[in-house]
Amino acid sequence: MAVLETIRNFFLPALFAEPEEIVPAPPTTYEIRPLTMDQLAEVLRLNIRCFRNGDNYTKHTFDYLLNEPRTLSYRMVTPRDEIVGFAFVMVNENNAAHLTTIGVAPEHRRRRIAERLLEQVESALKAREVGTILLEVRVGNEPAQNLYRRCGYIVVQRITKYYSNGEDCFLMMKSLY
Ligand SMILES: CC(C)(COP(=O)(O)OP(=O)(O)OC[C@H]1O[C@@H](n2cnc3c(N)ncnc32)[C@H](O)[C@@H]1OP(=O)(O)O)[C@@H](O)C(=O)NCCC(=O)NCCS
Q: Could you tell me if residue 51 is inside a domain?
């Protein structure tokens, strides 16, 4: 049984993960740093905790993104250098960028970590003269939609059945000029 469990978790870690009991972390300070291949294992673990619905990226995807020169990636860390948030954005050829993923550890949420990560991403894009940032969000993901709206993103399109379970997404955009 242990072998079967291991194989199952290897392929579908997030879908089968037991619900977590979330205890808010004690107050602390946070700092943004670049996210590199050195943090691959840690960010992979955190992304599984952030996306328990199966939207988590695989090791292969993070590997690709972290080795792709068009990707900018940041982590938010505690004073003990523990990653509690991450954001990845990819710059396209057409003067636009795409927010590929953003997540915050459940016990550190509602502390402006995602907002600060978005600000960091946006200022790095502006420095590269990128004019627009785009993202997709599930129509059912209200926390993320609230975050993006608060940060100045607007819905430009609803794309039907965008996700494999048939859920629609909102395409959201922000002009950086
Ligand atoms: C969405 C997510 C990244 C927000 O991270 P966070 O660090 O808690 O967000 P912030 O503290 O920066 O929130 C800023 C604002 O966003 C909105 N917001 C964030 N979480 C919210 C929630 N659970 N419910 C309602 N609004 C929320 C609020 O307007 C909030 O401001 P407020 O706290 O003053 O009300 C986090 O909940 C997460 O990791 N979710 C799972 C992964 C995910 O869905 N990623 C986005 C995929 S498109």
A: yes
143: CA distance to ligand 1 center in Å?
A: 5
Q: How far is it, in rounded angstroms, from Cα 53 to Cα 14?
A: 7
pTM: 0.92
Structural domain count of the chain: 1
* pLDDT > 60? residue 79: yes
144 lines ligand 1 (CB under 6 A): yes
Q: What are phi and psi of 176, to 5 degrees?
A: -95, 0
Range of the domain at 63: 32-175
How remote is the CA of residue 163 from the centroid of ligand 1, in Å?
21
> Which ligand 1 atom is nearest residue 148's CA?
16
| Strand runs labelled E in the chain | 31-34, 71-77, 83-91, 96-104, 132-138, 154-159, 169-175
Residue 70 identity: R
Q: Is residue 27 part of a domain?
A: no
Give the SS3 label for residue 32.
strand
- Ligand 1 pocket check: which of 52, 104, 141 to mutate, most ligand atoms within 8 Å of Cβ? 104
pLDDT tens readout for residues 20-39: 899 999 999 999 999 999 99
| Ligand 1 centre distance from Cα of residue 109 (Å) | 7
CATH code of the domain in which 88 resides: 3.40.630.30
